[in-house]
Amino acid sequence: MSTGFTQEQLGWKPWLPPLAPEELTEAHHEALVDRARASSPYFLLLARDPEILHARTKTDNDIFYNADGGLPRAERELAATATSRRNGCVFCASVHARFAAHHSKRPQDVQRLLDEGVDAPQDDTWRAVVDASVALAATPVEFGPEHLAALRAAGLDDLAISDTIHAAAFFNWANRLMLSLGEPEDHR
Amino acid sequence: MINDVIDHLAEIRPGSRLDKLRDLRPAAREHAQRGFDALFVPDEEGEVTLVERDAVAAFVAGLHRDAVVAGFYADRLAELAPGLLKTVEAEVEAGVTTGPYGVYPAPLAAESDEGLRYRVRNPDELGVRLAAAFEHAHLLVFRPREASRQALDALAAAGWSPTGVVTLSQLVAFLAFQVRVVGGLRLLGQEVAA
Fold this sequence. Notes:
- The structure holds two protein chains of two kinds.
- Chain A contains nine helices and two strands; from the N terminus they run E-H-H-H-H-H-H-H-H-H-E.
- Chain A has helices at 26-32, 41-46, 50-65, 73-87, 90-104, 107-116, 124-137, 145-153, 158-180; strands spanning 11-14, 182-185.
- Chain A is globular.
- The mean pLDDT of chain A is 96.
- The radius of gyration of chain B is 17 Å and the shape is globular.
């Protein structure tokens, strides 16, 4: 099924069989980190290799939820959304666009990013974060001194820049899993 | 002995500004390394052999054209399976391009962007499993938007089990993350030094 970029809630259907809930051992639960994930087909599929799933999730949580300074949550989610928009992960973009819109209270700016793409007009700070994310999504990586300078000019300190790099880099991990192991389902 | 691969590849020295910066996200730092360990120094090989892991990593790192990262994974492969290195280097040469690109189905078809559709150059030298893994890895690196059920069927036909596919996908995706963190932090470190 194909759908365009949206902030609406989408489902996700795996192309490979996830583990059945009754197959989960304590090690699997530990790998899932959050027990609620044991009902997600995505995480139950990734649980086939619990150690890398555990590392993935712990890395994810610290990059996005560590509230000790650095980049505001809204802009971390913006980096995730821009990366997903550029890589073409409709499902990832839908989830993180909702988070970005919620934390920034700027749903229209987020929607413009989804509708028109990564080049859509944004204010200076969002421009810098989106451009950095797009440059980091490129292979080979195109992130250069000009991106750092724009992030600095937008007022980001070292930790906020490091958070931007990590948030964008992480979605190059997440997008590739979500895109290649299943597909979005539109229940609207 | 390398304790932290990202520090090693981004040339982050103990006590440096970047070292202290990474300590402010301690779980991300720790688990990025644990991710490396889980993929490349696993307690058990599971359904992907160590040679397969290092061969795919050398290919994927080579495609990203970061000389330090590519050299690191090429050295690992050279140590474990020296006979494969030249073969993998030839595949990198055949596969290098710039991404992301790929064809979208409707309703995003207007954004479609055609590019290289890599096919393995020397399938006999790689063997059936690695040949399929390389083609899948190239798809994930450059045109992840084109990933499909059919691509997973091709892996299955080459002998990849569902769990093996999960490990392979994690390996390619993890490297996409690691090479970007390394590139970004290295640049940030150089800026501070300048």
